[in-house]
Amino acid sequence: MTTASADAAAKFDLTIEQYLEFAKGTGDAMKACLAADPEIVMAQVLRGYFFHLMGQAHLLERAGKSHASAEMAADIQGVTARERCHVAALGAWCAGNLAAAGRLWEAILIEAPRDLLALKLAHFAHFYLGELADHRDSPARVMPAWDESVPGYGYVLGMRAFGLEEAGDYGAAEVFGRQAVELNGRDIWAVHAVAHVMEMQGRHREGLAWVDLHAGAWGPNAHNFQYHLWWHKGLYHLEMGQHDAVMDLYDTRFRADQSDDYLDISNAAAMLMRLELRGVAGGERWRELAEKAARHIRDHILPFADAHYMLCLAGARGTETAGEMLASMRQWATQETGTMAPIMRDVGIPLGEVIQAWGAGNHGRVVEKLMPIRYDLVRIGGSHAQRDIFSQMLIVAALRGRQYAIARGLLAERVAAKPASAQAWTWYAEALKGTGDAAGAARADSEAALRT
Ligand SMILES: [Fe+2]
Q1: Is 347 found in the same domain as 270?
Q2: Residues 376 and 439 grouped into a single domain
Q3: What whole-number distance in Å separates Cα of residue 168 and Cα of residue 407?
Q4: 322 CB-side CA count, 13 A
Q5: Domain check: are 419 and 337 in the same one?
Q6: For 118-154, what is each residue's pLDDT tens digit?
Q7: Does the residue 425 lie in any domain?
Q8: Within 10 Å of residue 163's Cβ, how many Cβ atoms?
Q9: Same domain for 352 and 438?
């Protein structure tokens, strides 16, 4: 790395470590690095990356300025090819081409498999572009360059774990995840990967204990990503039918600070909607979310975030604002040429229409619009556990719209994938009853009773 200051280099390393730990001090560490050497190219690039990672439209201009200053400093200093590649990746991201940025980070990793920053950003890009194979394989490709003697090894294991989990290899994911947590108990991403394994395998009681066990280690030093772990704890309670416990976590943990962050809003909206699907009203909580979402209806940074802003508006029955947001999505998709434009056109907009129909109580339209795109939703990114809200919405829309044969098929799928889910069996019983299969419904009801 090019810098005249050993102190700045040390502070850059500290910033990366803080970033990977989701530590609150990440921004301050970066500022200290820039104070030690204002010309350091990699910290300027990092500042631009961070502005993008925050997922807020009003920060994009500052990301662009960081890119311009990094490019200028790189020209003056004659930096390394790797640093130039990072500058180019930031430039691609600023141009709306996250996929191209992802390819540049992967290119860096071919030559420099220990570039943790490139690895983490490639992990982010693959995650939000639904590139499941790359998400799984990217950390595997660099593993030969890592072992316990290399600082940061645990973070690689944690990314490997999460990539495997999203690819459905739960056994291997848990082994790598637990190994990472043993090396560093504050590695909240690795804790999170194992939490996902427990969610997908229906190990709800174990999941509750897992989150509680590790919450102490990240403690007050972790930034808002910790809310996502509390959200996962809420999912376990939800599957166990403990709705009061979910609401308590909502109010005291993952929505306590009512932030404007897209992930925090996504956690909250997706959980309130899950509760609504189970007949539990979110009440005034929806209004708070809809007010935050209304600030972002023209952002269009991530189709994943857009879908969750739409959920906020639908939950609060904010029909007019939802219509404005959809209109903005349509206009944006016709003007943009970057990575997200086709995703928005093919999946983001149809999904937005589904959510709008849900808000209007039009269950028939939800089923009609969601069935053809359900297997394409992976393209908006996020995890299987996060996107499951849309599978649940489809099922409940089919049930409420009395399309019982469709619901029966969807629920046969669901109980096969999630046999430990009492709710899945209860919904299945309702669908079977609706199709006139009383004996099948009784069997499904008894399966549900066994799991509550
Ligand atoms: Fe998660």
Answers
A1: yes
A2: no
A3: 24
A4: 25
A5: no
A6: 999 999 999 999 999 999 999 999 999 999 999 999 9
A7: yes
A8: 26
A9: no
Q: For 57-68, what is each residue's pLDDT tens digit?
A: 999 999 999 999
Q: At what angle do helices 384-400 and 188-200 cross, to 10 degrees?
A: 30
CA-CA distances (angstroms) from residue 106 to 84, 116, 158, 219? Answer: 14, 11, 18, 33
Report how far residue 346's alpha carbon sits from residue 261's, in angstroms, rounded to the nearest whole number. Answer: 26
Looking at the domain assignment, is residue 202 inside a domain?
no
Q: Give residue 306's domain range.
A: 245-380
What contacts 314, CB < 8 A, 6 or more positions away? 273, 322, 355, 356, 358, 359
The angle formed by the CA atoms of residues 396, 401 and 406, to the nearest 5 degrees, is 70
pLDDT in tens, 15-32: 999 999 999 999 999 999
Please report, rounded to a whole number, the percentage of residues in the chain having pLDDT higher than 90: 96
- If one counts the domains in the chain, the total is 2
Cα 351 to middle of ligand 1, angstroms? 21
Does 371 map to a domain?
A: yes
Distance 192 CA to ligand 1 centre (A): 6
Are the beta carbons of 414 and 424 closer than 8 angstroms?
A: yes
Contacts of 46 by beta carbon, 8 Å cutoff, 6+ apart:
12, 15, 16, 30, 117
Rg (CA), the chain: 22
Same domain, 370 and 421: no
Token pair 């910290």 is found at: 43
How many angstroms does the Cα of residue 162 sit away from the middle of ligand 1? 9
- 412 & 376 share domain: no
Q: Could you list which residues have their CB under 5 Å from ion ligand 1?
A: 383
What is the 41 CA–ligand 1 centroid distance (Å)? 32
Distance 432 CA to ligand 1 centre (A): 32
Q: Which of 34, 90, 30, 33 is nearest to 65 (CA)?
A: 90
State the pTM of this model.
0.97
Dist CA 43 CA 78 (whole Å) = 16
Closest CA to 112 of 154, 149, 142: 142
Report d(CA 11, CA 127) in Å as an integer.
28
CA of 446 to the centre of ligand 1 (A): 31
Query: Does any domain span residue 136?
Result: no
Q: What is the distance in A from the centroid of ligand 1 to the CA of 229?
A: 7
Single out the residue in 335, 362, 380 at which a domain terminates. Answer: 380
**Dihedral angle sign, alpha carbons of residues 381, 385, 391, 396:** negative
Cβ atoms of 143 and 183 within 8 Å: the answer is no
Is residue 369 located within the same domain as residue 294?
yes
d(CA 273, ligand 1 centre) in Å: 17
